[in-house]
Protein backbone atom coordinates (compact mmCIF):
# COMPACT_ATOMS: atom_id res chain seq x y z
CA UNK A 1 0.00 0.00 0.00
CA UNK A 2 1.01 3.60 -0.59
CA UNK A 3 1.24 4.42 3.12
CA UNK A 4 3.88 1.72 3.66
CA UNK A 5 6.28 2.89 0.96
CA UNK A 6 9.39 5.01 1.47
CA UNK A 7 11.03 7.10 -1.23
CA UNK A 8 14.47 8.55 -1.89
CA UNK A 9 13.40 11.71 -3.73
CA UNK A 10 10.00 12.68 -2.32
CA UNK A 11 7.54 12.35 0.52
CA UNK A 12 3.83 11.54 0.34
CA UNK A 13 1.06 12.39 2.79
CA UNK A 14 -2.68 11.93 2.32
CA UNK A 15 -5.04 13.87 4.59
CA UNK A 16 -8.74 14.64 4.12
CA UNK A 17 -8.71 13.06 0.65
CA UNK A 18 -5.89 15.35 -0.55
CA UNK A 19 -2.51 13.82 -1.44
CA UNK A 20 0.56 15.99 -0.88
CA UNK A 21 3.67 14.98 -2.82
CA UNK A 22 6.80 16.92 -1.83
CA UNK A 23 9.98 16.87 -3.91
CA UNK A 24 12.55 16.31 -1.19
CA UNK A 25 16.14 16.71 -2.36
CA UNK A 26 16.67 20.34 -1.27
CA UNK A 27 20.47 20.13 -1.18
CA UNK A 28 20.44 19.08 -4.84
CA UNK A 29 17.79 21.70 -5.75
CA UNK A 30 15.35 18.80 -6.20
CA UNK A 31 16.95 17.89 -9.49
CA UNK A 32 15.45 14.83 -11.15
CA UNK A 33 17.86 11.96 -10.62
CA UNK A 34 17.40 8.33 -11.68
CA UNK A 35 15.41 7.50 -8.52
CA UNK A 36 13.00 10.34 -9.24
CA UNK A 37 12.12 9.01 -12.70
CA UNK A 38 11.11 5.70 -11.11
CA UNK A 39 9.42 7.02 -7.97
CA UNK A 40 7.41 9.95 -9.31
CA UNK A 41 5.23 8.09 -11.86
CA UNK A 42 4.90 5.17 -9.44
CA UNK A 43 3.40 7.44 -6.75
CA UNK A 44 0.93 8.99 -9.17
CA UNK A 45 -0.09 5.57 -10.47
CA UNK A 46 -0.59 4.29 -6.91
CA UNK A 47 -2.77 7.23 -5.89
CA UNK A 48 -4.81 6.89 -9.07
CA UNK A 49 -5.15 3.12 -9.01
CA UNK A 50 -6.03 2.98 -5.31
CA UNK A 51 -8.40 5.97 -5.51
CA UNK A 52 -6.37 7.13 -2.52
CA UNK A 53 -7.17 10.85 -2.93
CA UNK A 54 -9.52 13.19 -4.76
CA UNK A 55 -6.89 15.83 -5.47
CA UNK A 56 -3.09 15.89 -5.60
CA UNK A 57 -0.90 18.83 -4.54
CA UNK A 58 2.76 18.79 -5.60
CA UNK A 59 5.19 21.15 -3.89
CA UNK A 60 8.86 21.23 -3.04
CA UNK A 61 11.52 21.98 -0.44
CA UNK A 62 14.60 24.18 -0.25
CA UNK A 63 15.57 27.16 -2.37
CA UNK A 64 14.05 26.07 -5.67
CA UNK A 65 11.06 24.05 -6.77
CA UNK A 66 13.20 21.95 -9.12
CA UNK A 67 16.37 22.49 -11.13
CA UNK A 68 15.34 19.99 -13.80
CA UNK A 69 17.16 16.91 -14.99
CA UNK A 70 20.04 15.75 -12.79
CA UNK A 71 23.16 15.56 -14.96
CA UNK A 72 23.77 12.06 -13.63
CA UNK A 73 20.81 10.83 -15.66
CA UNK A 74 22.66 11.65 -18.88
CA UNK A 75 25.50 9.32 -17.90
CA UNK A 76 23.23 6.56 -16.59
CA UNK A 77 21.50 5.69 -19.83
CA UNK A 78 23.86 2.79 -20.44
CA UNK A 79 24.77 3.80 -23.98
CA UNK A 80 26.79 1.05 -25.66
CA UNK A 81 28.97 2.19 -28.53
CA UNK A 82 29.13 -1.39 -29.83
CA UNK A 83 25.40 -1.31 -30.68
CA UNK A 84 24.56 -0.79 -34.35
CA UNK A 85 23.78 2.90 -34.90
CA UNK A 86 20.14 2.52 -35.96
CA UNK A 87 19.37 0.30 -32.97
CA UNK A 88 21.20 2.66 -30.63
CA UNK A 89 19.06 5.56 -31.81
CA UNK A 90 15.89 3.48 -31.51
CA UNK A 91 16.87 2.78 -27.89
CA UNK A 92 17.26 6.52 -27.27
CA UNK A 93 13.85 7.23 -28.82
CA UNK A 94 12.24 4.70 -26.51
CA UNK A 95 14.03 6.24 -23.52
CA UNK A 96 12.63 9.66 -24.39
CA UNK A 97 9.13 8.17 -24.70
CA UNK A 98 9.53 6.56 -21.29
CA UNK A 99 10.56 9.86 -19.72
CA UNK A 100 7.59 11.58 -21.37
CA UNK A 101 5.27 8.99 -19.85
CA UNK A 102 6.56 9.93 -16.39
CA UNK A 103 4.74 13.27 -16.70
CA UNK A 104 1.85 12.17 -18.87
CA UNK A 105 0.62 10.29 -15.78
CA UNK A 106 -0.39 13.70 -14.39
CA UNK A 107 -2.83 14.11 -17.27
CA UNK A 108 -4.16 10.56 -17.16
CA UNK A 109 -4.65 10.53 -13.38
CA UNK A 110 -8.37 10.68 -12.66
CA UNK A 111 -8.01 13.36 -9.99
CA UNK A 112 -6.85 16.98 -10.49
CA UNK A 113 -3.16 17.76 -9.95
CA UNK A 114 -2.24 21.17 -8.50
CA UNK A 115 1.34 22.49 -8.61
CA UNK A 116 2.65 24.83 -5.88
CA UNK A 117 5.86 26.35 -7.22
CA UNK A 118 8.51 28.47 -5.53
CA UNK A 119 11.93 29.62 -6.68
CA UNK A 120 13.28 28.14 -9.88
CA UNK A 121 11.20 25.90 -12.11
CA UNK A 122 13.83 24.93 -14.63
CA UNK A 123 14.11 22.61 -17.62
CA UNK A 124 12.46 19.27 -16.84
CA UNK A 125 10.48 20.90 -14.04
CA UNK A 126 8.65 22.98 -16.64
CA UNK A 127 7.90 19.76 -18.53
CA UNK A 128 6.34 18.43 -15.33
CA UNK A 129 4.20 21.41 -14.34
CA UNK A 130 2.92 21.80 -17.91
CA UNK A 131 1.22 18.41 -17.53
CA UNK A 132 -0.61 19.43 -14.33
CA UNK A 133 -4.16 20.76 -14.19
CA UNK A 134 -3.52 23.99 -12.25
CA UNK A 135 -0.38 25.92 -11.32
CA UNK A 136 0.26 28.41 -8.51
CA UNK A 137 3.51 30.10 -7.50
CA UNK A 138 5.25 32.50 -5.13
CA UNK A 139 6.37 35.97 -6.20
CA UNK A 140 10.01 34.83 -6.33
CA UNK A 141 9.29 31.96 -8.75
CA UNK A 142 10.73 31.90 -12.24
CA UNK A 143 10.35 29.56 -15.18
CA UNK A 144 13.01 28.65 -17.72
CA UNK A 145 13.17 26.37 -20.75
CA UNK A 146 16.82 25.74 -20.05
CA UNK A 147 17.61 23.15 -22.69
CA UNK A 148 18.80 25.50 -25.46
CA UNK A 149 21.48 26.75 -23.08
CA UNK A 150 22.72 23.15 -22.96
CA UNK A 151 22.69 22.74 -26.73
CA UNK A 152 19.61 20.53 -26.90
CA UNK A 153 15.87 20.72 -27.53
CA UNK A 154 13.42 20.19 -24.66
CA UNK A 155 11.93 16.74 -25.23
CA UNK A 156 9.72 15.70 -22.29
CA UNK A 157 6.59 17.77 -22.91
CA UNK A 158 7.16 21.52 -22.53
CA UNK A 159 7.17 22.29 -26.26
CA UNK A 160 4.02 20.24 -26.78
CA UNK A 161 1.95 21.34 -23.77
CA UNK A 162 3.04 24.93 -23.13
CA UNK A 163 1.55 26.24 -26.42
CA UNK A 164 -1.82 25.00 -25.12
CA UNK A 165 -1.38 27.14 -21.99
CA UNK A 166 0.22 30.40 -23.21
CA UNK A 167 0.71 32.12 -26.56
CA UNK A 168 2.76 30.38 -29.25
CA UNK A 169 4.96 33.43 -29.73
CA UNK A 170 5.86 33.55 -26.05
CA UNK A 171 6.62 29.82 -26.00
CA UNK A 172 8.96 30.25 -28.94
CA UNK A 173 10.71 33.20 -27.33
CA UNK A 174 11.23 31.30 -24.09
CA UNK A 175 12.43 28.18 -25.93
CA UNK A 176 14.75 30.02 -28.33
CA UNK A 177 16.38 32.21 -25.67
CA UNK A 178 16.18 30.13 -22.51
CA UNK A 179 15.43 33.32 -20.57
CA UNK A 180 13.67 33.34 -17.22
CA UNK A 181 9.97 34.16 -17.08
CA UNK A 182 9.04 35.86 -13.81
CA UNK A 183 6.05 35.00 -11.64
CA UNK A 184 4.28 38.19 -12.71
CA UNK A 185 4.74 37.34 -16.39
CA UNK A 186 3.61 33.76 -15.75
CA UNK A 187 0.41 35.11 -14.17
CA UNK A 188 -0.20 37.60 -16.98
CA UNK A 189 0.38 34.94 -19.64
CA UNK A 190 -1.99 32.45 -17.98
CA UNK A 191 0.62 29.86 -17.01
CA UNK A 192 -0.21 30.17 -13.30
CA UNK A 193 -3.58 30.85 -11.71
CA UNK A 194 -2.33 32.97 -8.85
CA UNK A 195 0.87 34.40 -7.32
CA UNK A 196 1.40 34.43 -3.53
CA UNK A 197 3.85 36.41 -1.37
CA UNK A 198 5.53 33.37 0.22
CA UNK A 199 5.64 29.58 0.31
CA UNK A 200 3.52 29.19 3.43
CA UNK A 201 0.73 31.42 2.14
CA UNK A 202 0.78 29.64 -1.21
CA UNK A 203 0.50 26.16 0.30
CA UNK A 204 -2.38 27.22 2.56
CA UNK A 205 -4.26 28.67 -0.41
CA UNK A 206 -3.59 25.72 -2.70
CA UNK A 207 -4.71 23.24 -0.04
CA UNK A 208 -7.92 25.23 0.39
CA UNK A 209 -8.55 24.81 -3.34
CA UNK A 210 -7.66 21.11 -3.19
CA UNK A 211 -10.01 20.55 -0.25
CA UNK A 212 -12.79 22.31 -2.14
CA UNK A 213 -12.19 19.96 -5.07
CA UNK A 214 -12.18 16.97 -2.71
CA UNK A 215 -15.60 18.00 -1.39
CA UNK A 216 -17.14 17.59 -4.85
CA UNK A 217 -18.31 14.40 -6.50
CA UNK A 218 -15.14 12.62 -7.64
CA UNK A 219 -17.03 11.23 -10.63
CA UNK A 220 -18.12 14.72 -11.70
CA UNK A 221 -14.61 16.11 -11.20
CA UNK A 222 -12.89 13.37 -13.18
CA UNK A 223 -15.48 13.91 -15.91
CA UNK A 224 -14.53 17.60 -16.05
CA UNK A 225 -10.85 16.75 -16.31
CA UNK A 226 -11.45 14.17 -19.03
CA UNK A 227 -13.65 16.48 -21.08
CA UNK A 228 -11.39 19.56 -20.79
CA UNK A 229 -8.27 17.62 -21.76
CA UNK A 230 -10.10 16.00 -24.67
CA UNK A 231 -11.40 19.38 -25.89
CA UNK A 232 -7.86 20.77 -25.80
CA UNK A 233 -6.72 18.21 -28.36
CA UNK A 234 -9.85 17.91 -30.55
CA UNK A 235 -12.35 20.03 -32.47
CA UNK A 236 -15.41 21.49 -30.79
CA UNK A 237 -17.64 19.14 -32.79
CA UNK A 238 -15.66 16.05 -31.78
CA UNK A 239 -15.54 17.21 -28.16
CA UNK A 240 -19.30 17.74 -28.01
CA UNK A 241 -19.83 14.30 -29.49
CA UNK A 242 -17.54 12.73 -26.88
CA UNK A 243 -19.32 14.70 -24.15
CA UNK A 244 -22.66 13.18 -25.17
CA UNK A 245 -21.19 9.68 -25.01
CA UNK A 246 -19.51 10.31 -21.65
CA UNK A 247 -22.62 11.84 -20.11
CA UNK A 248 -24.88 9.04 -21.29
CA UNK A 249 -22.75 6.56 -19.35
CA UNK A 250 -21.53 8.53 -16.33
CA UNK A 251 -24.45 10.80 -15.43
CA UNK A 252 -26.41 9.04 -12.69
CA UNK A 253 -28.68 11.69 -11.12
CA UNK A 254 -30.14 9.24 -8.61
CA UNK A 255 -26.73 8.93 -6.95
CA UNK A 256 -24.40 11.92 -6.60
CA UNK A 257 -26.89 14.60 -7.66
CA UNK A 258 -29.54 13.28 -5.29
CA UNK A 259 -26.95 13.18 -2.53
CA UNK A 260 -26.26 16.89 -3.13
CA UNK A 261 -29.97 17.72 -2.87
CA UNK A 262 -30.43 15.60 0.26
CA UNK A 263 -27.36 17.12 1.90
CA UNK A 264 -28.64 20.64 1.26
CA UNK A 265 -32.03 19.76 2.68
CA UNK A 266 -30.41 18.28 5.78
CA UNK A 267 -27.90 21.13 6.13
CA UNK A 268 -24.84 18.85 5.92
CA UNK A 269 -21.92 18.24 3.62
CA UNK A 270 -22.60 15.70 0.87
CA UNK A 271 -20.87 12.33 1.05
CA UNK A 272 -19.80 10.70 -2.21
CA UNK A 273 -18.47 7.26 -3.05
CA UNK A 274 -14.85 7.12 -4.16
CA UNK A 275 -13.94 6.22 -7.70
CA UNK A 276 -13.52 2.50 -8.19
CA UNK A 277 -9.91 1.40 -7.57
CA UNK A 278 -8.01 0.10 -10.56
CA UNK A 279 -6.12 -3.17 -10.36
CA UNK A 280 -3.33 -2.83 -12.94
CA UNK A 281 -2.76 -6.60 -13.03
CA UNK A 282 -6.07 -8.31 -12.35
CA UNK A 283 -8.50 -8.09 -15.28
CA UNK A 284 -11.35 -10.28 -14.03
From TrEMBL:
Query: From what organism does this protein derive?
Result: Shewanella inventionis
Would you indicate the residue range of the signal peptide?
Answer: none
Transmembrane domains' residue ranges: none
Entries under InterPro entries matching the protein: ClpP/crotonase-like_dom_sf, Ech1-like, Enoyl-CoA_hydra/iso, Enoyl-CoA_hydra_C
Q: Which family does it belong to?
A: Belongs to the enoyl-CoA hydratase/isomerase family.
Q: Which Pfam families match?
A: ECH_1
What's the protein called, per UniProt? Enoyl-CoA hydratase
The record's Gene3D superfamilies line, in alphabetical order, gives: 2-enoyl-CoA Hydratase, Chain A, domain 1, Lyase 2-enoyl-coa Hydratase, Chain A, domain 2
